[in-house]
Specification:
Elements (H helix, E strand, L loop, with lengths): L32 E10 L2 E11 L4 E5 L6 H9 L6 E6 L2 E2 L10 E4 L11 H15 L7 H14 L15 H13 L5 E5 L7 H18 L2 E6 L2 H7 L2 E6 L2 E6 L1 H6 L4 H6 L6 E10 L2 E6 L7 E6 L18 E6 L5 E3 L11 E2 L15 E13 L3 E8 L2 E8 L10 E7 L4 E4 L5 E2 L5
Parallel strand pairs: 3-8, 3-9, 6-7, 7-8, 13-16
Antiparallel strand pairs: 1-2, 1-4, 4-5, 9-10, 11-12, 11-14, 12-13, 14-21, 15-20, 16-17, 17-18, 17-20, 18-19, 21-22
Helix pairs in contact: 2-3, 2-4, 3-4
The structure holds adenosine-5'-triphosphate.
Adenosine-5'-triphosphate binds next to helix 1.
């Protein structure tokens, strides 16, 4: 993350009007922000390559991705603190590509809040309004208006009693609220937040997450938040944008991205604990498609997708273009732990094609059955993450507190419903139709 000493609040252009070739004129709805063909290089490294990204107006959009994937650069391009090498940045109805940061109608809050240490809370919050009033005596805000807006922002963020304090006399959470107040006092149409919660401890973070969601609801403007914390990403946004290597790999609601990850990267990055992923061989079978993994005869996963499942749909497996291997994924929270009775065989997972009990004695509906031996149990309060090593390497399952808790060394078996299996192309990593699709 790249921080900046630049003042974080920039003026609002509330009177933005649609340009002749703006989205409204083209018959579409006005987005909050639209990036079109945006690229950015530092030296020879392309850090941003976004053919098109629309941030819906009024959405709480979260940009998430691993460190260095270009999230902050994307935010800074929207703010106007970085100039893209190619492409257009549209904010509301206007092409803002060449508009100075202060006239874009955006405010940005940085990771370290970048407060002025020698100014009081009130002076920090009113700083940019006073600057605007000084530079623009005719159209800038009056003293009364500044006072009104500062009072309103302080009330919204519970800062009334702290107005006279300096940043050094505030806790991390209080500083964060001052940073937010300073940004919203401008009434920006787009509020940009660059990892605003990362300086807070776990408890404050949780509280601040809820505060931010409430604030967004009250303001009704477009919020774009950057984080590398995927829990934050899933829980806060109405819209999620996953980035990797400067590119947008998927965008949608958090639920869509979680349930139907577009590729192996998204599958592994979004969700905690991470999705279990195994490479399996694919072969045609009279009753469908057979999947196998592992090498030893008694230590392998063997599965049958009934009728070939949707994997065979579109002819993917029917003709010469059939993949001979796929990556199979399942989420630890989607599996049900079934502890084998003493004496039951523990090896050989099976993918049952019917509702009948699978060989080995595991009861339940059709699904993937995986076995292994417990080697780590992570207690998290209301659940435990049980890590196992088994037929096809390492895998994890989430067990709710109150359910039977396995101990280290126990044999464990899980069943994953067919509907919760994910398949990905081994070469491209792209999602393939799932068995239950
Ligand atoms: N001013 C700069 N000069 C050169 N390289 C830069 C500059 N700013 C960022 N980079 C590089 O661009 C890439 C993307 O950086 P960016 O800060 O956008 O990533 P990020 O996804 O926000 O990372 P983090 O989560 O660690 O903050 C990184 O490889 C970074 O080293």
């Amino acid at each position: 993350m790249v921080t900046s000493p630049v003042a974080t609040a920039v003026p609002v252009d509330a009177s933005a009007v649609g340009s002749a070739d703006g989205p409204e004129a083209r018959g579409g709805t006005v987005p909050g922000v639209l990036l079109e063909g945006v690229t950015k290089k530092y030296g020879r490294q392309t850090v941003l390559d976004v053919p098109r990204l629309e941030v819906p107006r009024g959405s709480f959009t979260v940009l998430v991705g691993p460190s260095g994937c270009g999230k902050s650069t994307g935010l800074r391009v929207i703010a106007g603190l970085e100039t893209p090498d190619t492409g257009r940045v549209i904010i509301g109805a206007d092409d803002a590509t060449n508009t100075p940061p202060g006239q874009r109608g955006v405010s940005m809050v940085f990771q370290d809040f970048a407060l002025y240490p020698h100014l009081t809370v009130e002076q920090n919050i009113s700083f940019s309004l006073r600057l605007e009033a000084r530079h623009n005596r005719r159209t800038g805000p009056s003293q009364a208006e500044i006072g009104r807006r500062v009072t309103e922002a302080c009330a919204m963020l519970g800062l009334e009693k702290l107005r006279g304090r300096r940043p050094g006399q505030l806790s991390g959470g209080e500083r964060q609220r001052v940073g937010l107040a300073r940004a919203i006092v401008r009434r920006p149409q787009v509020l940009l937040l660059d990892e605003p919660l990362s300086a807070l401890d776990a408890q404050l973070r949780q509280h601040a997450r809820a505060e931010l969601i409430r604030l967004h609801r009250e303001l009704g403007n477009t919020v774009v938040l950057v984080t590398h914390d995927q829990l934050e990403a899933l829980s806060m946004g109405t819209n999620l944008v996953v980035m990797n290597g400067g590119k947008v790999v998927q965008s949608g609601t958090p639920g869509e991205v979680y349930r139907r990850p577009a590729d192996v990267f998204v599958a592994g990055f979004v969700g905690s604990p991470a999705m279990n992923l195994h490479e399996v061989a694919v072969a045609s079978h009279p009753a469908g498609i057979e999947l196998t993994a592992g090498t030893s005869p008694d230590g392998r996963l063997r599965g049958l997708l009934p009728g070939g499942g949707a994997l065979a749909g579109g002819g993917a497996l029917a003709g010469g273009g059939a993949p001979d291997r796929v990556r199979l994924g399942w989420r630890p929270g989607d599996a049900v732990l079934e502890m084998p009775a003493p004496g039951e065989p523990s090896s050989s997972g099976e993918l049952a094609s019917t509702g009948a009990p699978v060989p080995g004695g595991a009861a339940g509906g059709p699904g993937l059955v995986v076995t292994g031996v417990v080697d780590v149990v992570e207690f998290t309060g209301d659940s435990a993450v049980v890590h196992c090593t088994g037929d096809f390497g390492r895998w994890a399952v989430t067990v709710r507190a109150g359910d039977q808790q396995p101990a280290i060394g126990d044999r464990a078996r899980v069943r994953v419903p067919l509907a919760d299996l994910h398949l990905f192309d081994v070469d491209t990593g792209r999602r393939l139709p799932t068995p239950a699709a």
